[in-house]
Amino acid sequence: MSGGFLTALLYGLGASGGLVLGGAIGARVALPRPVLAAALAFGSGALIAAFAFELVQRPFEVAGGVVVGAGLLLGVAAFVTVDALIDRWESGGSGTALLAGVTLDGVPENLALGTAVASGSGGLVLLVSIFASNFPESLSGAADMRSDGRSSRATLGIWLTTAAVLTVSVLGGWLLSSILAPTTLAGFQAFAGGAVVASLADTVMPEAYRQGGLWIAFATVAGFFLSFLLSTI
Q1: Which is nearest to 121 in space by CA: 70, 53, 63, 169?
Q2: Phi-psi region for residue 213, left (φ > 0), alpha (ψ -120 to 50) or beta?
Q3: How confident is the model at residue 1 (pLDDT cuts 50, 70, 90)?
Q4: What pLDDT, in 10s, does the model give residues 134-172?
Q5: Per-residue pLDDT, 91
Q6: pLDDT above 70 covers what percent of the chain?
Q7: For residue 102, what pLDDT is reported?
Q8: Measured distance CA(153)–CA(142) in Å, rounded
Q9: Torsion angle of alpha carbons 140, 142, 147, 148, nearest 10°?
Q10: Closest of 176, 133, 156, 123 to residue 10, by C-alpha
Q11: Cα(134)–Cα(43) distance, integer angstroms
């Protein structure tokens, strides 16, 4: 087993650990909505900065504006299309649909984390930013599941399953980096960035605003600044 594989596995476990930790806490502890909103906003700000630098700027330097722009647009289109299908599927209350929904925005960002680990640049920034996003997302989601009457064991099982899927996604991104040509990989990274930004714009940030109001802007900027500082290290 190569050192690169082990590194990608550890990064995947670290990033997905936020889901398990948040799910475990949210399934048992009722936190104030403003706290959940601030955490969601903080994670959103961190991801925006990380993906701007690591999944737009770096791919742009490799492949140029046409490839990156096309990748971003395709990523947005893919997220919006699949999200609309999941919204229709969830109307029946399917637990599988719920799992698909919480995984949708995580797969692209974890694939991107795997490519960053393989290239040796930006992995730490993405790791911290994804953890900062995963933790409040599962915290808030687990709280909603508890309110809907789902047991703590079932809730934690959902988040453990999701964490496993996303860890595998990191390994998949690491593997793709050894297969794809640099220009193709840059387009793939931009695609992942577009999907993640779409998820923030369509779901996470509106939810943070709904729960926390205008004040979540401060938490968003704090997350953005932290991610920026990490990118300068």
Answers
A1: 53
A2: left
A3: low
A4: 998 888 888 888 887 888 888 899 899 999 999 999 999
A5: 55
A6: 93
A7: 65
A8: 11
A9: 120
A10: 123
A11: 8
| Both tokens assigned to 124 | 């730490």
Give the integer Cα–Cα distance in Å for 123 and 142: 28
DSSP secondary structure, the chain, as one string: --HHHHHHHHHHHHHHHHHHHHHHHHTT----HHHHHHHHHHHHHHHHHHHHIIIIIHHHHHH-HHHHHHHHHHHHHHHHHHHHHHHHHHTTT-HHHHHHHHHHTHHHHHHHHHHHHHHTSSHHHHHHHHHHHHHHHHHHHHHHHHHTT--HHHHHHHHHHHHHHHHHHHHHHHHHHTTS-HHHHHHHHHHHHHHHHHHIIIIIHHHHHHHHGGGHHHHHHHHHHHHHHHHT-
Cβ(41)–Cβ(208) below 8 Å: yes
The pTM (predicted TM-score) of the whole model is 0.89
**Res 87 pLDDT > 90:** no
Query: CB under 8 Å to 151, separation ≥6 — which residues?
Result: none
Summarize the confidence of residues 56-83 as an average pLDDT: 93
Q: Which two tokens stand for residue 110?
A: 């974890």
Is pLDDT above 50 for 25? Answer: yes
Grade residue 221 by pLDDT with cuts at 50, 70 and 90.
very high
**Matching residue, tokens 């700027």:** 57
Of 1-10, 46-55, 72-81, 196-205, the poorest mean pLDDT is in 1-10
